[in-house]
Amino acid sequence: MRADAQRNRERLIEVAHVVFKERGLDAPLDEVARRAGVGPGTLYRHFPTREALHEAIMATWIEEVSAHVEKAMATEGGCREKLLAWFEEYVSLLTRHQGAAAKITASLGCQDSPLRTKCQTYADANESVLTEMAEHGALREGVDNLDVCRLLGGVATMADHSSLEPKDVRPMLDVIANGVLKN
Amino acid sequence: MRADAQRNRERLIEVAHVVFKERGLDAPLDEVARRAGVGPGTLYRHFPTREALHEAIMATWIEEVSAHVEKAMATEGGCREKLLAWFEEYVSLLTRHQGAAAKITASLGCQDSPLRTKCQTYADANESVLTEMAEHGALREGVDNLDVCRLLGGVATMADHSSLEPKDVRPMLDVIANGVLKN
DNA sequence: CAGTGAAGCGGAGGAAGCCTCCGCTTGATT
DNA sequence: AATCAAGCGGAGGCTTCCTCCGCTTCACTG
């Protein structure tokens, strides 16, 4: 890739971060181009679809996921406390940008989404936590990772749409934790 | 209201039902107007916002909610079976039209949404079911109706976005039921 | 029934966003 | 310095939203 093209690409990602942060993942792409100082054609050549740009944005988040797992698993207390800490991390990761939770979770089931690899990272992270719970004999029988991811995605989406604060999200996570763990 | 205005209004609702069914609640309003044989101005005078039209559409659904509660409560088996039957009804009511689940559930917390009265009907229905569970001593302490509604709204939204079938939704409802009921 | 005023209608059209196409510019290479 | 493909930008067609305003039609009155 030519050096100027590389520069433009990086600048677009940088600006997209800001614009998506300000206005959500549905922000007008023409504005991203304008604020990056390039024409719309340039944006669409680098990122043919909105999702391609989303994917580029999320690449940086992905690297942090495992750190969040470890942070949650270091919570003091039993499985329940650790699980809830992780659930809170999960929701907060998904709601970084307005509109992200729904999009990421929707791509969970479909093989051909550009966000596939990203959401898989979240799903894998959740699976590792659930596996740890299972090893401690704390997990109910028949709890499926995909279902838990979708439940958490649903909670995150509701939190996003209703601008809920963590204190409003917590009770929902409590219910899910109760449903996932043995009592 | 003048007779012709009344006719137009009814026709718009009728056509909107069809268009929203075909293309989801985000379908172009101009198309609703066109297919109803009126100008866009007429549509926007009767329904100043998209939500106003949604509200009109949903008015007919609302009447059926209590019938669905009774149907679910007539399920044979214990509290768990009844509750799950109701949860399935709830999700299927919310996913009648593409995009409805998210919109209805988002208006749960906010007092000034035009959909307020509609979502309140769902919330009330759910509360009546939870109350019945509580009277049988089957409900966990501290389970809040609003949280359960949001959880179900989240599941319905995920089902909507990922085009999930009932068999894929059921396991999520199982988790919520486990989280809501005593074991 | 004719006349009148207001309620209501329709559609032109401005604004915003999406995305493409194509002539021009510029970086890399020789 | 010359070449030319890679890359750029922005004009512009398309869709959808929503408003504005001149014209039509209804309902009512004498």
Sum up the structure in keywords.
mainly alpha; DNA-binding; 73% helix; 183 residues; homodimer
Poorly predicted regions of chain A: none
| Number of strand elements of chain A | 0
The helix content of chain A is over 70%
What is Rg of chain A? 18 Å
Estimated share of beta-strand residues of chain A: under 5%
The sequence of SSEs of chain A as H and E is HHHHHHHHHH
Taking the sheet with the most strands of chain A, its summary is: none
Oligomer: homodimer
End-to-end CA span of chain A: 57 Å
Largest interface chains and counts: A-B, 32 and 32 residues
The coarse overall form of chain A would be elongated
Helix and strand content put the structural class of chain A at mainly alpha
- Could you report the average pLDDT of chain A, rounded to the nearest whole number? 96
With helices defined by DSSP (H or I, 4 residues minimum), what is the helix count of chain A?
10
Describe the structure.
- Two copies of one chain form a homodimer.
- The first copy, chain A, has 183 residues and is mainly alpha-helical.
- Chain A has helices spanning 3-23, 29-36, 40-46, 50-62, 65-73, 79-94, 100-106, 116-135, 145-162, 166-180.
- In chain A, helix 6 (79-94) crosses helix 9 (145-162).
- Chains A and B meet through helix 7, helix 9 and helix 10 of A and helix 7, helix 9 and helix 10 of B.
- Chain A binds a DNA duplex (30 and 30 nucleotides) through residues 1-5, 8, 28-31, 33, 38-42, 44-45, 48, 50.
